[in-house]
Amino acid sequence: MDLQIALFLGQDGLVNGAVYGLLALALVLVFSVTRVIFIPQGELVALGALSLAMLQSGKIPATYWLLVALAAPALALEIWRWQRGQLVDLRSTLVWTVLFPSAAGLLMLVQPRLWPGSLGVQSLVTVLMVTPLGPLLYRLAYRPLADATILVLLIVSVALHGILVGLGLWFFGAEGWRTPPFSEARFDWAGVSVSGQSLVVVATVVMLVLLMFLFFERSIIGKALRATAMNRVGARLMGIPTGLAGDLSFALAALIGAISGLLIAPITTVYYDTGFLIGLKGFVAAIIGGLASYPVALLGALVVGLLEAFSSFWASAFKEVIVFTLIVPVLLWRSLNSPVIEDEE
Other C-beta atoms within 10 Å of 190: how many? Predict the structure, then answer.
């Protein structure tokens, strides 16, 4: 291996690690707020990429009908709860079940006439379709079991993963899809060709990380989410609606998944089950961060990306094995250095 190959592999690892970092942040956020290990995070990535590809081909993505199919029972459930006198936030319910589906449908109708072939508008439609899937899945699958053990919530996540993978095969078929890059520019740095799409990926990830930092540090809603993550019962006693905190954490995770799908679709061919492996690598990074530390999870994602890139050169047939084996020493080290506590503590 010479320097040029090392730089090329480093670039590939950095780009992949940036995407895994976004997924790791989403997994840490959801787990810290709701105690849910959100395995279907990778499926949201695949839905984002494949939905954009279908929009590019001039078709209405089946993701939209999935959104409508989830929004209808979620709205009916909230109306039923409201009629029974339970505390219901109708504004957030209308946002997820009416506003987002209506905005996505309207944009899909006018986009071919006003902005034919516009990658930016199609990306916006994709984000509007995928983002509300997070809170809708939370309301229908997780919120009724909010007081269940982590193991029960994990079983629900595994079931949802299987359902979404099956729906992905039904919606998009077994063939792979790819979308045009957001930038077709190419640069030559130190003898290594750098694509504009790679720079778009890194710049987008850096911007999202900064926005998330400002959101959690400066906004009241972000501080409420942090309080819920630190002490759910204490946050509830202080008047913070922990149910809405779950809504928002899943919405942010789905938004991250949609944007990640848009970023990887021009780089690699995406299949209906591609999101599972991507999500697992983000999960490895989140485990390195202990499902609690955002900076360590980001650092872990870069380690995973670089390890994957260099493994593909030295032992391409075993690169996945090498990446996932990384989780073993991390878990061993954490188990030896963590105090013994009860599961729910």
Answer: 8
Could you tell me which residues come within 8 angstroms of residue 186 by beta carbon, excluding any fewer than 6 positions away? 193, 194, 195, 196
Give helix 41-56 / helix 150-172 axis angle, nearest 10°.
20
CB of 254 closer than 8 Å to CB of 132: yes
Q: Give CA–CA dist 170/11, Å, rounded.
A: 35
**Rounded CA separation 291/300 (Å):** 11
- Which DSSP state fits 143? G
Predicted confidence at residue 75, as pLDDT, reads: 93
pLDDT of 46-87, one tens digit each?
A: 999 999 999 998 889 999 999 999 999 999 999 998 888 877
CA-to-CA distance for 112 and 139, rounded, in angstroms? 33
Residues 6+ apart with CB under 8 A from 39: 154, 157, 158, 160, 161, 279, 283
Q: At what angle do helices 242-264 and 274-288 cross, to 10 degrees?
A: 120
CA trace torsion 107, 113, 117, 121 (10° rounding): -20
Alpha helices in 57-182 (DSSP H): 62-83, 90-94, 100-114, 119-130, 133-137, 150-172
